[in-house]
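Lecture 7 notes: from sequence to structure.

We start with a single chain of 227 residues. Read the sequence below before looking at the structure.
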Amino acid sequence: MPDSPRIEDLRRRVQKDPASIAFAQLAEELRRAGSCDESIAACRAGLAIHPGYLSARVTLGRALLETGALDAARTELEVVLKSAPENLAAIRGLAEIFHRQGQLPEALAQYRTALSLAKNDPDLQQTVAELAKQIEPQKPAHVSEGLSFEQISNELFASTPPPQPPSPAPAVKRDSGPAMRDSLVQSTAPTHEARLRNPESDLRERQIAALEQWLRAIDVARTQPRA
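Now the structure, written as tokens:
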């Protein structure tokens, strides 16, 4: 397939003046056209004269990536990111290298950095979501970690049944003897104490019960095999 008129024009300009910065445009057009080997050659020739031309170094890194030279591509893109840490093309290229090499946590970190710079990129959003699901499995919903005792007790408070009100004491008949009255007084004493119990004590007991329930949930989660 013949080269496009733009590539032919850029090639003539570079041949006429090897020091021309048009080499960067030529290399990028060649990469997009699928001529990665020629793009790499154009980049290296131009960068020998203009080593600080970062866009050309990004093109070189991406062309190397597309040919499968992952280590060489990583070297070039890391050079770019040292000088331009927010270069989106370099970040995405480095993320893809990590991804291909199986370094998934490193890849996810780079993809997330790229997404912070291109928030509405659907491809990046999907890639981040898929990688996060793969390497950051969700923890059991019933285990609450990182909460204070007060938060835990409030969270589980609703599931702890409130204390039942004390049953009314039976009435003592007027004609009951002293022995019967003494027996009723003894049997109703705990009920009378329950009526006088401080409401704060009831709340404390319910919080302790909630904490015990939370600790039991953690023990169950730890003993269950991970999926």
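The longest helix spans residues 199-223. Keep this in mind for problem set 3.
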